[in-house]
Structures
1.
Amino acid sequence: MSENETVTGRVTRISGPIVYAEGLGACGLYDVVDVGEAALIGEIIRLKDGVATIQVYEDDTGMRVGEKAVCHRRPLSVRLGPGLVGTIYDGIQRPLKSLFSSSGAFLEPGKRSEPLDAARKWRLEPAEALRSGAAIAPGAVLGYVRETESVNHAISVPPTVRGRSLAWAAAAGEYTIDEPIARTELGEEIFLAHHWPVRRPRPFARKLTVSEPLITGQRVIDVFFPLSKGGTAAIPGGFGTGKTMTQHAVAKWCDADLIVYIGCGERGNEMTDVLSEFPELIDPRTGRSLMERTILIANTSNMPVAAREVSLYSGITLAEYYRDMGMDVAIMADSTSRWAEALRELSGRMEEMPAEEGFPAYLPTRLAEFYERAGRVVPLSGGEGSISVIGAVSPPGGDFSEPVTQHTKRFIRCFWALDRELANARHYPAIGWIESYSEYAEEVRAWWDRLDPRWSSVRAQALELLKREQRLQQIVRLIGPDVLPDTERIILVVAEMVKNGFLQQSAFDEVDMFSVPAKQVVILKIMMDFYRRSLAIIRNGAPLAKISALSCREEIVRIKTTFANEDAAGISGVEARMNQELDELERLYRKVETV
Ligand SMILES: Nc1ncnc2c1ncn2[C@@H]1O[C@H](COP(=O)(O)OP(=O)(O)O)[C@@H](O)[C@H]1O
Ligand SMILES: [Mg+2]
C-alpha cells in the first residue's frame, strides 16, 4: 500500500463533526480523509454498506453534501522526532504556537502545518550502529541529537523497518528531519523522524513490574498514596476541588524525564493559564525552563470535539516514543471527563445506542486503551523506560458513582479522591485520606526502605491514627468532646497536627510547594513520636492540657514552611526541643506517681 495512493469519494450527509461519505469502500477503518473542498482532516471510524462514517477534526461549518472526500489510505499518525519537546500542539499534532500569529489561538480549518520544524538542522552524534554493514533491528539506536538541555534524544530504527543491516550510513553532522541518515539493505531510508499511528501502541521488548515511586514532592501523595513510575492514577473531584492544581504540581515537580500534559476540553482561559505559566516555570533539578522537558497538548472546550477525542491517543503515543528511548515519562490528562463527553457527543451524532448516562457502551474499552499504555517496560533498544498516567476526572456534581469515575477505577491503581469538604475548608491538596488509595505502596516500599526505612511504619501509623480520628469525630459530633478520655482526645490533637503540618501543602508557598522525600518522612516521624510519647505521659497521669500547652507543638506543625528541604539541622533542632519538653513532662509525672 503506497502512501500516495488515494481514493476519492463524495460527502452524502453531515451531522456536525460526523460526516458520511460514499465511494470510500476500499479504504480501511481509521484511515485519514481530507474532507470537503477545504480538505479538513478526518478519520474513518466506521465502514458499513459502502458508507464511510468520518469524524472530522476541524470545524466543518459551511461544508455541503456533494463535496469530495479524499482518503489517504493511512491511519491518523503523529510525527515523532526531535523538536517535539517544548512545543504546544492541538489534538492532532498541529503546533499551536507557529499558528498563533496568523490566526489567533485557533487554527484555520484545513490549514496544514508541519508538526516538526523541517528547516531546522540537528547535530547528529552517531552511535556504534551507524555504519554501513552494521546489523540492525527495530529499536537499535543509531545516534543522538541534543533536543533540549534536558533531553538527549535517541534516534533509533523505527519499529516498522524490515531491513536487518545498513547498506549506507551518514556521518556525524547536521541533518534536517527530511534528510536520510541511513539506508537498509532493502533500500528503506531512515530519518531523524518517523510517523506512528496514534491508536496503535508502540511495541516494546517486555513489560516489567513497577518498583520505583514517581516522586511528586507532594506529601499526601508520596507518603500516603504513592504512584509508581509506570503506574496509573486518577484524580476525581468536583469543580474547584484542585484537579488542575494537583496535576500542575505533579507536572512541575515530579522526577520524570519528560512530561506530556494534555489540557482536554477545559475552559479556554484555564488552558491559556497553562500556556502562559508553563514556559516560565523553572525545573528545580536542572535550573532551566520546564518546557525543556514538557510537551503540551491543548484542546479547549471551543475546539472541535473530535480533536479532543483523539488528543489522548496522540499524547500517549508521544509518551511512548520517549519511553522507548529509556526515559521515565509522566502524562497528565485534564480532564478525561471532557474527553468522555466528546466520545458521547460523537456517538450521539452517529445515532449509536447509548449506555449509562448517554455514554457509548465502548466507553470502558476506550478508557482501558488509554490507561493500558502505561507501564514500565524494556524498550526494543534495551534498558528501561516507563509511562505513568495521571488522569483527572470531573464527575458532575462531584458524584463519584457516575460512569466515567466508576469505569476509570477499573483501570487505575491509584485513586486520589478530592474531597469537597476539605476544599471548602481550604485544606489543600484536598486529597481525602479515607476514600483515596494506592495499590503501589507495597511495590515501592523497597525503594523507600533504602532511603529511609521509617517510611512504611510512620505511614501505617499515621493512616491508622487518621482512621481512628474519623471514628472519634463521629462521637464528638453526636455528644461533644467531653466524653472522650484524654487517651483518645490526644488522637484528635495529633490528627490536627498531621492535617495542618503534613497533609496540607500550599502550591503557592515558596518553601513548601515541593518537599523532598527525606523531609516528608522526618516530619511525619516527629509527629508520630510526639503522639507515642504524649500518650505514654497521659497514661502516667498527665492531663491533656499539659500536652496541648507545649510550645513544640506549633513548631512541629510549622516545620514544613520554616525549614528548606536541605535544612536537616533546623528540623533536628525542633525534634530536640520536642524531646526536651516531653522529657520534662515525663519526669514530672513519673515523680508524682512515685511520691
Ligand atoms: N495545592 C494547593 N495549594 C493551594 N491552593 C490550591 C491547591 N489546590 C487547589 N487550590 C485552590 O483551589 C482552586 C481551584 O483549584 P483547581 O485545580 O482549579 O480546581 P479544579 O481543576 O478541580 O476545578 C485554586 O485556584 C486554588 O486557589
Ligand atoms: Mg480544572
2.
Amino acid sequence: MPVNTFSPFTDASVKHVRNAGRETSRMRPADDEPLFSKQELDKSFATISRWPGYRPTPLLSLSGLARKLNVGAIHYKDEGGRFGLGSFKALGGAYAVSNLLAENPDPSSVTVTSATDGNHGLSVAWGAKQIGCRCVIFIHAEVSAGRERSLKLQGAEVIRIDGNYDESVRRCYSAAGDNNWIVVSDTSSDDSGSDVARTVMAGYSVMTAEIVRQLDTNAPTHVFIQGGVGGLAATVCEYFRLAWGSAAPRIVVVEPNRAPCLFESARKGERVAVDVREETVMAGLSCGEVSVVAWPTLQKLADDFLTIPDSVVAPAMCLLAEAPFGDSPVVAGESAVAGLAGFICAGQDDELSSALQLNQDSRVLIIGTEGATDPALYESMTGRGAASIGRASI
Ligand SMILES: Cc1ncc(COP(=O)(O)O)c(C=O)c1O
C-alpha cells in the first residue's frame, strides 16, 4: 500500500449525477408495478436454497476501515464463495436454466446459449451441466484465457469473437436464431428477452434476501453498488424498498468511466447506449447498453450514479486483501470492488461526500460481487495469490 492508503482514491476523477427522475418517496405508489411478484421471490428463494451446497454468503463488518473513513459502519457482503463459482452471478443464469428446463422431459435435446464476460456464462454453463443440456457460450476478444478455461471446465463450448461484449451479445442472438437454441441472457435490449433476464434477476434476489436477514431491521443508510447492464442494481433497489420501505437506503450505482451506460442514461433521463471503445479492467461491468428490464426500476429508485477510473481498482483490491486496519482480509476481484472504490473516492471529496450525505452516522453496504474469479489476473493486480490471503473466498 502507498504511505497514504487513500491517496489513489483522492486523486481519482469521479463523476457524479443525481438521478433527477427518481421517486422522492420510498413508499410504493399504489399504481406501481413491482419488478418481481411475491410468488417469484418466494420461488427463487425456495428453489435456490435447496440446491446442494447452498449456504448464505457472509456479511462482514469492516469496522477498522469504517473508523478510518469516518463512517458509522461498513457491511461487506462477500460473494466470493457462492456455490464454488466465485460470484453472485451463480444465482442468476443457473436459476434461469433450471426454470426454463424444469418441465422438459428431455433436456439433452436442448442447447442453451449466452454471451458473457465470464461470470454470467459460468453460471449458465453450471446450470446446463446440472440439468444435462448442451451449452454454447460467446465471449469477446478481451475475456481472459483463465475465464475461458473455467467455462470449458463446466462443459461449455466456447466461441470467442472479435469485438466487444455488446457484439458478443449480437452474435449469440444470431446463432440462437439460426440453430433454435435458447438464449439465457442477463440482459435484454427489447421486450423479447425480458422474461429470461427478469428470471436471472429473481435469482439474484436470493442474495438480497440474505442481506435483509443478516441486517434485520438495521437497514444501511447507503448502498454503493456496481453496475454493468443494471440487473443487479435494479434487484437491489427493488428488494430493499420492499423490505425496508421508507427506511430503504440511498442507492449509489457505480460504473467504470469506460462503460458508463447507466450514468449516461440517468443524465439524459432515458435509456441510452454508449460505445465501449476501450475495455475496462472491471470486465463484468464493461457494458454499453442498459437492460430494458432493469432501467424502469433504476430510473424510479436509484438515487445517484458515479463513474470511476480503472486506476482505483487495484488499490481497492489491495486494501481488502491487506486489511491494514484490523478487519478480516477479503479476496475481491476487479468487478467486485467498484462500489467500495466509488464510496472511498466519494468520501475523500468534501463536495461529493456532502452531496451524498456521507457522515459519521452512515452505515454503508458494499456488495463484493466476486472473489478471484480469474486467479492469475488477481495475482497480477494485487501482487499476491488469492489462496495466500487469510480467508480465501473461493
Ligand atoms: C462481479 C460482477 N459484479 C457486478 C456485475 C454487474 O451486474 P449487472 O450486469 O447486472 O449490472 C457483474 C456482471 O457481470 C459481475 O460479473
